[in-house]
Design a protein that fits this description.
With 127 residues, the chain is α+β, with helices and mostly antiparallel strands. It contains 3 helices and 5 strands, in the order αβββββαα. It has one domain. The radius of gyration is 16 Å and the shape is globular.
Length: 127
């Protein structure tokens, strides 16, 4: 018999593999700065081409998802809690660097996961 924790993990794993439309307003790399006790989110601009791929606005070349690419972040957002960084991002930044509701929901989930990892000492890896 599968436990509730295993069932939830299986649901999350399955949903993490679904197709996502990219946000033309950009993407975020989320990480923890444990020394400062902060959740950090670097925002990067991109454009989305006709194939639905994120492309570098300067070069027009697709941004690979599996290879590390050195790009300059446009903004660094930080907060001690998911709520603090969420308010900074969605309520205090004009214009908001997120243009899709599904992207906003995803960021809320990730900031909550990052906060939990920060307070429990667990590893955080962005989904």
């Amino acid at each position: 018999m599968i436990s509730a924790v295993e069932a939830i993990a299986a649901i999350d794993d399955k949903l993490s593999k679904r197709f996502l439309e990219l946000d033309p307003a950009g993407y975020f790399i989320i990480y923890l700065d444990r020394g400062a006790g902060l959740i950090c989110a670097k925002h990067f601009t991109n454009e989305v081409n006709e194939q639905g791929l994120a492309v570098d606005p300067e070069t027009g070349k697709p941004i690979p998802a599996t290879i590390k690419v050195e790009r300059q972040a446009t903004t660094l957002f930080t907060g001690r809690t998911a709520k603090e960084i969420g308010i900074q991002l969605f309520e205090s930044t004009k214009p908001c660097p997120v243009s899709r509701f599904d992207h906003a929901a995803y960021l809320g989930r990730e900031f909550t996961r990052a906060e939990l990892a920060l307070v429990t000492g667990q590893d955080y890896v962005q989904d």
